[in-house]
Amino acid sequence: MREPTRLFLFASAALLLLLCSSAGAGGDFAGDYSKLSGIIIPGFASTQLRAWSILDCPYSPLDFNPLDLVWLDTTKLLSAVNCWLKCMMLDPYNQTDHPQCKSRPDSGLSAITELDPGYITGPLSSVWKEWIKWCIEFGIEANAIIAVPYDWRLSPSMLEERDLYFHKLKLTFETALKLRGGPSLVFAHSLGNNVFQYFLEWLKLEIAPKHYNQWLDEHIHAYFAVGAPLLGATETVKAALSGLTFGLPISEGTARLLFNSFGSSLWMMPFSKYCRAENVYSKHFSWGSSRGHHTYHCDEQESRSNFSGWPTNIINIEIPSTHGFDAYPSITEIAETNFTNMECGLPTQLSFSAREMSDGTFFKAIEDYDPDTGIDDTFFCHLSYGTLINAAYFRSYHGDPVFNPLTPWERPPIRNVFCIYGIDSKTEVGYYFAPSGKPYPDNWIITDVIYEIEGTLTSRSGNVVEGNPGATSGDETVPYHSLSWCKNWLGPKVNITRAPQAEHDGSDVQMELNVEHIHDVDIIPNMTKSPRTKYVTYYEDSVSIPGKRTAVWELDKANHRNIVRSPVLMRELWLQMWHDVHPNATSTFVTKAKRGPLRDEDCYWDYGKARCAWAEYCEYRYLFGDVHLGQSCRLKNSSAKMLLDYL
């Protein structure tokens, strides 16, 4: 078995001794590593939910009792799916619980590590477990890592209305400051970034304007946005119309019922970067708690651009001619354009952009093809799906009392912002749907899928599709167009570095300094890639905003759901924090010139040279229990001084 990683233990102890002596008087944060806290905001479906009811399940030996695991308990899902659905689903109109069962989010780190603990199910449902293990290896204290789980089924306004989530989150930051004496590092993944964005906007209405930035500086040292769907995710559309099982043993129709009952389902819908809602912050003293309707307007670029700036239209629907064009009063111009085809009995194809998704045009158009949800009217009221979604859009998002979440996010006013995401994976960016002739929830079928990959758009059948593909592709879940929006947070001059993800000696590191960056135009480095090597590309800016740093990290082939378990990401985060708090650091960001092993797990046996690889760092040291040569390769006792190379 591996012994505790000596480099981390030595480095953490040395760091504490070095920096405690450099802490400023009066308890102010002045580079004291021991004062930092880490606050984790998980993503969609990444928090355990537990039953808060007693539910007797007929024809099943398993019932639901208070505190029983609901999300995720695959045993009960398999044996009592109807009971499980009652505990999971919400009323899609008002987001209340099912009359017979309710669930609430668990608390603490255990709520986000493994969703379904078990010998087999545990590793399959692991989310933040590896992250926590790394923190322990780094020497982080138990009270320095704080998880803030939430009910990921709810819209942002309901999170506050029902659970006072944002009030509690504010208290969490303030408690961490009082407990540790320093600000926090925020780690948010996927939907957790949307939650944090809403929190920052909510905070503007809770704190006097002149104290807002001061509060942020005192309580938040750095924000790490991991896999943030800043302009939404097209996969959400598939989940809403045909169902997305996420690997669960349920049908797509059941998955659609479940997903569409969540208020948060619309939070991740694609929207146009050219459309914005009015700023409630400007009405700080007059808005109060009223639920008015926000003005949602688009600038001229929306009308001039193709596909609302996205690579292609989000949805294309083939409508049978027998239904008639009067079924779509909001898009009669399109229907009239295709009148000749309809006369001939040919189907009409309707296309919808990201703007038409977010402003309700699409869901209004499909009302006649989702005539009845077909669910028990005591809970879902037999409304059409389009009607329900439109009502939810305008009540929970366009009419949100804080701000409209379907608005492009400008750089948050935090001192250090790091936007991190995966690229270069095959990612869905558009769909072709057609009515199936079946009742809800199986009334739509996918006839084709459009993918982005390696700077091109292709269909499921392999045909090239015309559109506006980006320089690369997304992370298998969120398109590159949405992930890379945070590049607009960078200033007019950017330093770019590309380095291999694996340990390297610096021979394959490429750099470009002071690259010109035009707002709303992607930055494409003039660099090469070896086809057999995965890289990290760093975009860094520390001069455009005095006293603030902004960085974007792109990790080749990093999967959206697994990126928080990436050893490469954890290594880079830790080195950046080591650099930031070290009194002898000379550069603004950690150097990328070299990467050596940091843990015993990074050492391995080089069979070609018949010795441990990275002889400068690693040595052969057998311990009882080792079963192969690579396991006996461990860091040298003198390797800790190598950390000074990263300053």
UniProtKB/TrEMBL annotation:
Keyword Acyltransferase included in the entry's annotation: yes
An example molecular function term from Gene Ontology annotations: O-acyltransferase activity
UniProtKB keywords: Acyltransferase, Signal, Transferase
Alphabetized InterPro entries for the sequence: AB_hydrolase_fold, LACT/PDAT_acylTrfase
GO BP terms: lipid metabolic process
Gene3D superfamilies (alphabetical): alpha/beta hydrolase
Residues making up the signal peptide according to the UniProt record: 1-25
UniProt-listed PANTHER family: LECITHIN-CHOLESTEROL ACYLTRANSFERASE-RELATED
Name of the protein this chain belongs to: Lecithin:cholesterol/phospholipid:diacylglycerol acyltransferase
Organism: Trema orientale (Charcoal tree)
